Each structure stands twice: as structure tokens, then as C-alpha cells.
């Protein structure tokens, strides 16, 4: 197959895959997460730039991209090179928007001020370098037309840009229309891979909703309205109300055990300095702010209480210690 046609076919396939991720991300953000931020707009713009880039390469292939420079007419050569310059503009802009989309998303995630400042610096540098590169592409020669029509428009070269390709090394400009075809395929792949990597994490709520399970909880059913989906929204999630401090059945059980606790505490406290006749104003079923056993005395008796009380009380010793030190009064006999 003709090299130019192979490049165009591969780029259209990557573009279609990327647009599929754009559609899925839009559905997830609008209908599931119910939040649409600046990073999503940048992601859409990246997809638009990829479509424009692929379309420009298709036009360049029509004029002779992928064919030897020396076998084309002057008009074909000029038009092919011109459309590759247009494609380069979309490629640089698309790559910048993909990086900015990631940067804006991370700004919503990080909390430290130093991290936010670093991300802002990186975003500004990315936008500035991309803008400068686009300007350089279109101002390499004087006049500008010399860049894509050197044989019929004499001029001088102001900037000499040496394109580099992953796996290709430095691309020779001696046969521009033939040697640069693979370079544009790699440029399109870079944008497509960036879009896939940026789109995959945002699709997890869609996966959870569709399957009812998370990636790490296969086999465990999750509710369709799982609050786990909220963590994928870029806006801050509403605070979750704290659970009740104690269950009703737990409170009833504790009320029954408190008289036993007081009785065992008195029996175990003979001769150890505990004032068994200290005044007690505890109301039935509640806690009083009035006088009662001192905290130090109550703490010394706790070990004796655990030994004398029921076995289930001893098993819950740590939890009881916290509650007793918090002010539980000795109930009336």
C-alpha cells in the first residue's frame, strides 16, 4: 500500500478510538458524576485538534505526502508541504491542550500549596512553549511562503528546525514529502495515546454503574447509587455525616450493666482508698454533671471492676475505659 495512504488510515483509526473516549467521558461527567470542569473542555478541544490534524494529513496525502519529493510537480510539492505545516500547528496545539487538561485536573486533586504552585508553573510553561513553537513553525523563512514553496519563492531561512521522531531519529529534509510521512504518524499517535490515558481514569464511575462492582471488588455487589462515585467528581464532595455515637441496643445494654458495674466497684473497692459514700446525683438512664467519684480514684478501681464484672465486660475493657474516664457517674444503689 502507498505509504501516505497507510499513514492516513492509521491516523483515522486512532482518531476514531480517541473520539470514542471523548463520547464516553462526556456521558460519564454529565450523566453520572454531574460535573463538567475546565479539564473536560480542554479534553474536547484536544479531540477537535486531533480531528483537524488527521484531516490536514489526509489533504497532504492527496497532494503527495508519502511520495518522493522529486516525482511530484511543483504545485503538488508546494501544497503537500503547506498542509503539513497546517497539520503541525494542530499537532502542537493538541499536545499542549492534552497536557493542560491533565494539569487542570491535578490542580483539583492536590492540596499542598507548593504542589499547586508547581502545577501552575508547568501549565504556564507548557502553554508558552507551545505558542512559541507554533510561531516558529510559521516564521522560519522570509518571506513565509519560502517554507513550503522554496523552488519558486526564493528567500532566507531565519530558523532551522530539525524534526525528531520517536524511533526515527532526526528526520532528513532532503526528501521532505517521503521522509516526513512516518513522523506525522508518530505525532498523531502521541495525541491519541494522551487522550486514551486521560480518558480512562474518568470512566471508572461508568464501569461501577454498569457492572455494580469496582475493579478491586469483583464478586461483591455494589449499589447503583454508590457514594463511591462522588470521589470521581472534580468538585469537592459533600461531607458525610458522622454515624451515631452508639446504637440504641448498645445504649440499652450499657444501662443494664451500669448498676452491676457500680455494685462490683463497691465490693472490690474496700480498703483501697475509694470513698464508697461519695455523693452521687446521677439520674436514672443518664449522666450527671454533679459530684461523683474523682477521676483518679475511678481509674484505680477500673482494673478491679473488670476482674469482678461479667466476662463480656472484660472483653470490652478498652472501650469501657474511654467511656468511664469520660465521666460516667457511680449509679445509686
Automatic annotation (TrEMBL):
This is Rhodopsin domain-containing protein. The keyword Plastid does not apply. The chain crosses the membrane at residues 6-28, 40-61, 81-107, 119-138, 183-203. Belongs to the SAT4 family. Residues 231-333 are annotated as: Disordered. Residues 24-151 form the Rhodopsin domain. Keywords: Membrane, Transmembrane, Transmembrane helix. InterPro entries: Rhodopsin_dom_fungi (IPR049326), SAT4-like (IPR052337).
